[in-house]
Design a protein that fits this description.
Layout (H helix, E strand, L loop, with lengths): L2 E4 L5 E2 L3 E9 L2 E7 L1 E3 L12 E3 L2 E6 L2 E7 L2 E4 L5 E5 L2 E2 L5 H8 L5 E8 L2 E7 L5 E7 L2 E6 L3 E2 L1
Antiparallel strand pairs: 1-15, 2-5, 3-4, 3-12, 4-7, 5-6, 6-16, 7-15, 8-11, 8-14, 9-10, 12-13, 13-14
């Protein structure tokens, strides 16, 4: 990888980034993401304008899953009345690998990434139409990528 930043998560915009891969390696969570926006204040961005990249590797050091939830939703009838409410469904630790593998299909899309107090929260629109919240505890983050593309 040609470019590398450490603990600069807030210098990227992950909205509409596609998840190509999620894996746990050497105690770290590693996401491979496409269509990531690199913000002008990023330490590696010499163009000082929004750029984008594909194949960005986001590593969360010492990552541990705190929570994985399939978010609930509501169904309304044609008159706008609530027809059915589906509650949030926590995903159990025994299902983490299968669920994360299904989210890393190249079509699932991140709509927000937040970092607070060493916890990373990913809000994901899955390709099956459902949404997920993935919370990971970690000691830091590293972002690596090869190229800048014009936005």
């Amino acid at each position: 990888m040609k470019y590398r930043t450490t603990n600069e998560l807030h210098h990227f915009n992950f909205t509409e980034s596609y998840i190509a891969q999620i894996q746990k390696r050497n105690g770290n969570f590693q996401f491979t993401l496409d269509n990531v926006t690199i913000l002008p204040d990023n330490s590696c961005n010499r163009d000082i304008r929004q750029m984008r990249t594909n194949g960005l590797e986001l590593k969360i050091q010492d990552g541990q899953v705190l929570l994985l939830v399939q978010e609930g939703y509501q169904v309304y009838d044609a008159d706008g009345k609530l027809a059915h409410r589906y509650e949030d469904q926590p995903v159990g630790p025994e299902e983490y690998n299968d669920t994360l593998k299904s989210l890393a299909d190249g079509e699932s899309c991140i709509y927000t990434v937040e970092k607070t107090d060493g916890n990373y929260r990913f809000f994901i629109d899955a390709s099956d139409g459902r949404t997920y919240l993935l919370a990971i505890a970690g000691t830091g983050d590293v972002e690596e990528w090869d190229r800048f593309y014009s936005k």
